[in-house]
Design goal:
By secondary structure, the chain is α+β, with helices and mostly antiparallel strands. About 35% of the residues lie in helices and about 25% in strands.
Amino acid sequence: MKKLVVKVDLRDDRDRSKAMRVVSGFGGIESLSMDPKDNKLTVSGDFDPVEVVNKLRKTWHTDLVSVGATKEDDGKKEEGKKNEDLKAFQAYYPLPVTYYCLPPEETPNCVIC
């Protein structure tokens, strides 16, 4: 996992939302945060930092602050990651729902009829 911190020259909230949208379109990004006071964008995950910086530089003046590996707790982070993967899998592939219908001749005491 990598962590990228860049300072982007953004003028208003519209530019901030555009920058966040552009960066979030890359695959492998797990976390994305923006410090509006310093205009620093922090990106972490499995991605190519060169592509992210190049894409931002096409539209805004961008200064690279730092690139490096993220600090993570080995045991707790892996267990949480496995649980998140399982939840995402269950959300994407829901369990099938089975409905049972009884034929009308098997219910002799039908009130609705």
